Amino acid sequence: MLKWLSKFCSPQQLYDAGVLGMNARNFHIISKHNQRRLYPLVDDKVQTKTLANNIGISTPKLIGKIEHQYEVKNILDIINQYTEFVIKPAQGSGGKGVLVISDYHDGIFTTASGRKISYAEVYQHISNILSGLYSLGGKYDTAIIEELVHFSDVFKEYSYQGVPDVRLIIYKGYPIMAMTRLPTKASGGRANLHQGAVGVGLNIQTGKALHGVLRNQPVTIQPDTGADLMQIQVPYWQEHLLIGALAYDMTGLGYLGADIVLDANKGPMMLELNARPGLAIQIANGFGLKTKIKEVDKYYPENLTANERVKFVLNYRHAK
Amino acid sequence: MLKKIASIRGGLTFLLILAIIYAIYGIYYKIEYWGFSFSPKQNTNLWSIEAHISFTPTNTPIKINLTTPRSNDAFKILEENIIAPDYKIKRNKTKSLLTLTAPAKNPEDKQNLYYKIMLFDNIDTRGKIKAPQPQAPQQPIFDNQKLAAAKQILDLAEKMDGDSVSQIILLLNQEPLAPAVQSYLPVKNTQQQTVEIISDLLALKQIPSRPARGFKLEESKKSLSPDLMLEAYIDGVWKLYDIRTGKKGLPDNFILFQRGGKSLIDVIGGEDSVIKFSVLKSVKSTMSLAGQRAKLMDSQGWFNYSIYNLPLSQQNTLKWLSIFPLGILLIVLMRNVVGIQTMGTFTPMLLSMALVKTGFWAGMGCFSIMILLGLIIRSLMNRFNLLLVPRISAVVIFVILIMQELTVLGYSLDLHIAQSAVFFPIIITAWIIERASITWEEEGPLNAGKEIFNSLLVAIIVYFVISSEYIRHIMFAFNELNIIILFIVMLLGTYTGYRLLELKRFSPIVKR
């Protein structure tokens, strides 16, 4: 009992560390900076993709989309010459309902984890997506099929299957916090921390590793590959930040999470945006979001372009 | 930003305080005037007393004086009926004296008049009411010899148990009587005389006293004559004594009809007058008396528009509803202050409602069986590749079938556990199964188990609060409390502090 209690800390400690709690996030940040009418821009991945491409953010190429049940049987025509692709719900969240097919030959689909599934299973998966099983609030949804990202070799030794990505928190257009999420065996190739992926906080100015966290506990090596997490240095860091800054311009959401994946050939690409990004990133960074948010409110200029904001972040010296 | 929150909070706090003031007033009003109580099983004794007056008219004008009980703090009259056709009814100022006058043309045959009264006892206030100081008692006119005898008796009485009144009564009823007492008392004395003797003795001690009439209530007996008791004024209140046992206080099943004064009834212009009383006792729950009480209080308007004026079956439905806000408050606390994530926002509350109806262990056992069977069937169904809506519908039907089977099985095996299946909300159960099975597939059995466990944990916590008969009664009887809950919930909507479980979740940040 005492041991269990010792896992807790006092509210004052969290407050001093500038940690943003769920209630404060919802009340002070999201409801104030994110207008509800803007949500569909990020909740619907088809819309997000179009907007992103218009403003000059690269995203995985859309192969096709399925909106109605009778179209599901067209899936084989849609994927046609592709041997690898991703099927995901347009309005999903938290990686739910994402089916990664890393190989498709002779009617056999192979998922990222190497499991072989049949056409019928793919068919049902798409049906599930359409009927809203994975969408927010269970609304009818669209299934989108997009190109599989070939993530950069930089991450190869840090990731067990799946696609590692970089999560940025963008506040008022300034990227303020970053982490990379590395799939593990336990997470089933998914880049979700609560499913057991490793999160590594990244220095927002350099893209270098700060701390590693696995299931809320500090960690320094990748549990499956044994690679030293502290050696992580995300390349094209400025480009990552620019995607984040542009995402603010394209959505107008003051508090926003951007998931970016580094393609070996095409560079950083935006996977999706999130109007209610989670708070686990604070654990991976070892400091609170509130500190950063206060800093932005106080010292960061307004009315800069995306490029200027990225430069500002890169050159910012702590007020102290 | 902070200013804005402060003003929202300020406004809500102000409304909360208003709600609390309103609730306190409402509770006070309901307890004081409608007789509600915090205890759910409070019953009130209800008496219905009928006086049957019969006499044969003599050819002179008929006038009947009847002393009637009046509402006071000790008992309240619910209904009063006089059945005296053609008689003129008049009351004196304090309404304690009823005068019936016969019509101009005197009747000739035997007259039968009825006076009916229904009243209930305010047990709580009995003996606590301060009465104004009566005048000093009139001293009896005794000759010296009698005075000496009386004083001797008073001296003797001091050796008896109890207070000075009880002492005298006990002495006068001693078996065998002390010689001094025997010589003092008349050979054969009536109750009336006994009371007078005691009163005289008390007067020597400067204690005011008066006779009181009432009825020893025995339901089977139809005709009763009033019993005489004695009231003495001690320490600022009138206290009642049994003139045979000296016992203080109102005996059980005794109702006081009249205090002081003369006889209960005077019939002028009639002969062979007989008055017969019959008494009926009934027990009613305090809640069901509320309406009648409210009518007495001239606050009818308010009561007529309250839920307590509805038919009982509808009251029961509303009673069930009025516990919901408390459950909702607990859910809000669990989610926003403690930080437990559950399946669906109000699912745990609905589960706990079901548990209240089934009983805890029976409900938990039954629910576990249903979820377990449901999950097995759901996983078997996975192979059919059904679309979502038909699939969840199939699960719903399976849940219904499981409920039926469990109930039948429970009946034949005489197991209460299985019979409680029907109380669980079908759709909710089906969705729990569906969501658990999806979570199982997507995030592993551990996460699925955790989700169910969290939901059950919250359900159990809510259950232990709302399963209390007291809490349910209070939330219904004093439904103003729900307004307080409303504003507390709204105030919690402005709570931006850390959730309890976040203190654990984020602790690695400060404990690195």
Topology:
The complex is a heterodimer of chains A (320) and B (512).
Chain A: H1 2-5, H2 11-16, H3 22-33, H4 39-43, H5 45-55, E1 62-66, H6 75-79, E2 85-89, E3 99-105, E4 108-111, E5 116-117, H7 119-130, E6 143-147, E7 165-171, E8 174-182, E9 198-202, E10 209-214, E11 217-218, H8 237-251, E12 255-263, E13 267-274, H9 281-285, H10 289-299, H11 306-315
Antiparallel strand pairs in A: 1-6, 2-3, 2-6, 3-4, 4-5, 7-8, 7-12, 8-9, 9-10, 10-11, 12-13
Helix pairs in contact in A: 8-11
Chain B: H1 2-33, E1 43-57, E2 63-67, E3 75-83, E4 88-91, E5 97-101, E6 111-121, H2 144-157, H3 164-172, H4 179-184, H5 191-204, E7 209-216, E8 227-234, E9 237-241, E10 254-259, E11 265-268, E12 270-285, H6 286-296, H7 300-304, H8 312-321, H9 324-338, H10 347-358, H11 360-381, H12 388-413, H13 416-419, H14 426-466, H15 469-477, H16 481-492, H17 502-505, H18 507-510
Antiparallel strand pairs in B: 1-6, 1-12, 2-5, 2-11, 3-6, 4-5, 7-8, 7-10, 8-9
Task: Kindly describe this structure.
The complex is a heterodimer of chains A (320) and B (512). Chain A is of the alpha+beta class. Chain A folds into two domains: 191 residues, D-amino Acid Aminotransferase, Chain A, domain 1, CATH 3.30.470.20; 87 residues, Dna Ligase, domain 1 (2-Layer Sandwich). Chain A contains eleven helices and 13 strands. The mean pLDDT of chain A is 87. Among the domains of chain B are: 111 residues, no CATH class; 140 residues, no CATH class. Chain B is of the alpha+beta class and 512 residues long. In chain B, helix 2 crosses helix 3 and helix 11 crosses helix 12. In chain B, the strands form three sheets. Chain B has a four-stranded antiparallel sheet with strand order 3-6-1-12. A four-stranded antiparallel sheet of chain B has the order 4-5-2-11, with no helix packed on it. Chain B is built from 18 helices and twelve strands. Chains A and B meet through helix 2, helix 3, helix 7 and strand 11 of A and helix 14, helix 17 and helix 18 of B.
